[in-house]
Design a protein that fits this description.
Its EC number is 6.3.2.2. One of its GO terms (cellular component) is cytosol. Pathway: Sulfur metabolism; glutathione biosynthesis; glutathione from L-cysteine and L-glutamate: step 1/2. Keywords: ATP-binding, Glutathione biosynthesis, Ligase, Nucleotide-binding. This is glutamate--cysteine ligase. Among the domains are: 131 residues, no CATH class; 83 residues, no CATH class. A hairpin with a 5-residue loop joins β2 and β3. The chain is of the alpha+beta class and 330 residues long. The chain contains eleven helices and ten strands. It is globular. The strands form three sheets. Strands 1, 2, 3, 4 and 5 form a five-stranded antiparallel beta sheet that branches.
Length: 330
Amino acid sequence: MYRIAEQRLSTLVNRGGNRPLAKSRIGLEKESLRVSPEGHLAQTHHPVALGSPLTHPYITTDYSEALTEFVTPPCTDIPSALNFLRDTQQFVYNVLAAAPEHERLWATSMPCVVAGETSIPIAQYGDSNPGVMKTVYRRGLGHRYGRVMQVIAGVHFNYSFPDAFWPLYQELEQHPGNRQTFISEQYFGLIRNLQRFGWLVPYLFGASPAVCKSFLGGQPTLLDSFDEHTYFQPFATSLRMGDIGYQNNKEAEMGVKANYDSLETYTASLMKATETPYSEFEKLGVVVNGRYEQLNANILQIENEYYSTIRPKQIVDPFEKPSHALLRRG
């Protein structure tokens, strides 16, 4: 397999110059918890000086009001993406430093001091229909999986090959069919390979072996006690990617599993999950005492609820579902 990859890369370089992947599109999404100077989860609203989290293109919130999310635009090189992220974070640091609470951004992915589920404020996006929908969706996540797991921060790396790459690669692969079909097939092949070998990234580069004891809320654990406030695992790489990290441990019993064999099987599996009721979620209720507690009682409220280490994306039009966008434009 490695020999085939080397041959492909060599041929691409010979046909396309020294940089066949130049002008790739790269984007970063980084989440960081706002915390008090003592390290407790911030109970304040998303700062007004940072703009509206519903409409701001670069600074928003994820699950919680306290979980700030930084979004870069698509960049054509890694330094540009990192510089944009750095400058945006510095702006937020300046805003937080000027506020009377003197909050900070928590540096690691596993949360700081968490005083139980009720101490985690769900993100608010205003009274518009899109804003209310986003809040109700998050309320549903809390009922389904617990709020504590939802405030585990992460970094998302978005990548698209340059347009000029695909004609060269299609010729190399001697694929006579439609180019967009070819592109989709190759992206799904990449996804399957990353799912096979993705464990190698946290194994080699993971550096998160410790977690605040408050995160487990007194539950039994096999982790070792480092001190009065901290659990750790000797030689651990990334607790976030482990059993206590961000995951959907109900996936098997719910019967939802995305099928990455092709674009068609992937979209069909997710659309089925968004249309199939699940008994445990029906028990929660959708509208309880006049308030929406979740968007619906289906296996997935929306497609984005499905958690995976990697997922295909297409820019969506207004009111368009992600799967429909993928089916229409690849």
